[in-house]
Write a structure and sequence with these properties.
- The protein is α/β, with parallel strands linked by helices.
- The protein has a single domain (3-265, 282-301), classed as P-loop containing nucleotide triphosphate hydrolases (Rossmann fold), CATH 3.40.50.300.
- 34% of the residues lie in helices and 21% in strands.
- The protein has a six-stranded mixed sheet, with helices on both faces. A four-stranded antiparallel sheet has the order 2-1-4-5, with helices on one face.
- Strand 1 (3-14) and strand 2 form a beta hairpin.
- Helix 2 crosses helix 3, helix 2 (94-105) packs parallel to helix 4 (140-153) and helix 4 (140-153) packs parallel to helix 5.
- The longest helix has 20 residues, at 240-259.
- The relative contact order is 0.16.
- Residues 274-291 have low confidence and may be disordered.
Length: 302
Amino acid sequence: MSDHVELSNLTKTYPTPGGPAVIVKNFNLRIRRGEFVCLIGHSGCGKSTVLSMLAGLNEISEGGIVLAGRELTGPGPDRGVVFQSPSLLPWLTAYENVMLGVDQVFFTASAAERRQIAEYYLTVVGLGDAMDKRPAALSQGMRQRVGIARAFALSPKMLLLDEPFGMLDSLTRMELQQVLVDLWNRNHLTALMVTHDVDEALFLADRIVMMTNGPEAFVGDILHVPFPRPRDRRVLLEDPEYYRLREELIEFLEVRAYTLKNQSPPPSPPRPDGAASREAAPRSAVPMAAPCPTTPSVLSAS
């Protein structure tokens, strides 16, 4: 796979009364075509700032971003974005929210073809019977499904996800992770996802990029996730390598994210006598998503 995205010396500075505040400094990352990368780090380190610059929603102070051979200068439909909050237009139905982007991107397709694209992705995310409902009639998880469908329906060059499951309960979160994986496995969109959840990152990513603490945060380390695809959550939880990688991520967040910035890590919380240093992840039943229907032919031709 070739490099599809290049973030070079990316820096973001905000003016403040006390002088310039440098949030991210010299952030460098290359993402291969078809790769799924997760970006983790402590709150406030600049993960979402990096994502918003890549989305074209936040001005770059220094450095640059190249996507598919073209330097980015603003937002565009070549990047599909899924936000933590679904950000749906409340007066439109789920179907109409998805159609907004489809009509813009596939303007040369017929009305029937565009309708087929929107209906396909809403069906894939489990909203085939709810596409005519407005956001107020949908649960938070269902609204986020609309956001995922909307992003994939654009057939973008890159998928950007900013903690898309952070506001959901654990069971809905796992279910939508599986929905996301099932969609991604079909077309392997190049993806960058911000998350705080190390288990989520290990389940979804090919590589996990770890950011140092701020200010002036940068890439502290990159972890390659070796598990083959398609992945089965139950199988991962049986694999000792999963827990070794999990501990490596936690150790970075608890120690190295600080020491790489010459900061002192906070003291570890006290443990009860005899407590295990690590508990295995719960092995309760994991909701499994239904198989994806066949992709509409218009998408293959677009």
